[in-house]
Structures are given as structure tokens and as C-alpha cells.
Amino acid sequence: MKTNIQSHFRLILIVVVLVLASVGLIFPRWLAFAPNTKLNFSAQVKQPINADGSSVFSVKRGVVPVVFTLTSNDVAISQLPAATISLTRTAGGVPGSIDESTYLSSADKGSNFRISNCEYVYNLAASSLGTGTYKVNISIGGTVVGSGTFGLK
After folding, report:
1. Are strands 119-125 and 63-72 parallel, antiparallel or unpaired?
2. How far apart are CA 70 and CA 72, in angstroms?
3. Reported pTM
């Protein structure tokens, strides 16, 4: 009799957990139990870099704060996975990838974004880059999920 009650209790508990998880009350929606759901990450660049690529900063500025928010399947995510930054010069100077040692500032560690207030943050050292147009990418698991463009004059 005791085993039967325990089995029913376990079954009810499992059903309750699955229901709460499916509506996002226990786990974030992007971690909900959906066996064939692909996580489609998309990152959106935030101020001070304009999404339309119109931002131009002084090369003497020191740092350009790079900020991204993240969504998955059009749902905002608050528990952010690790992400990395990469930078490419698209115009001015020699176009191509920029080595992270060129834009690394003391506030950051390597090419990893910091996470602050549900946003990815990186202080890009601008003074060593020189004038030109730059594209900054954010990658999760080696896949670029967003980018922003800005100029330095």
C-alpha cells in the first residue's frame, strides 16, 4: 500500500514539474522540455552603438562600450550563456579581422563578454584601432548571433 501511494505521489510531482516548466515558471522558456526545439539565438546591439550602423566615435574616446541583449525564438533571455566578441575592420586602414590584443581593455578578460543586468557588455579599447569602420560580432558556441557596426574618426 505504501509503495502504491509513493508511486502516485511521484507521478503527480513529475506532472506538476513538467507543467510548470512548460509555461516557464521553473525553467526559462528556452530550457523548457521540447525535444525537437532548436534554440535560435539572436543578439541585438544596444546604445551607444546604433542598430542602423550610424554611430561614429572619436578614436581618442578611450573605450567604446559594446552592449548586446539576447533573444531565443523571439523570447528575451535573462539567463545568458557565455558569449565571445570578434572585431573586423570593414573600411579605412587594412580591412580584415582585428586581433583581440588590439582592442582588449583592462575591464575585460580575453574575448569574453561580461554579463551585467541581463546584457552582454564589453569595453572595446578604441584608441589603438585607428580610424575606420568596424563590425563587432557576438558569438555563442562559435556561431555569430548578432553584430553591430560603428565608425571611428
Report:
1. antiparallel
2. 7
3. 0.74
- Cβ distance 89 to 95 under 8 Å? yes
Superfamily for the 39-152 domain: Immunoglobulins (2.60.40.10)
Measured in whole angstroms, the distance separating CA 116 from the mean position of its chain's CA atoms is 11
The residues spanned by each domain of the chain are 1-37, 39-152
Beta bridge partners of 112: 84, 109
* 45-86 pLDDT, tens digit each: 999 999 999 999 999 988 999 999 999 988 998 899 999 999
Q: Give the whole-angstrom CA distance, residue 73 versus residue 145.
A: 12
Q: What is the DSSP letter of 81?
A: P
Rounded to whole angstroms, the Cα distance separating 103 from 134 reads 12
- Enumerate long-range contacts of 8-16, CB under 8 Å, 24 or more apart: none
Nearest to 82 by CA among 138, 26, 29, 147: 138
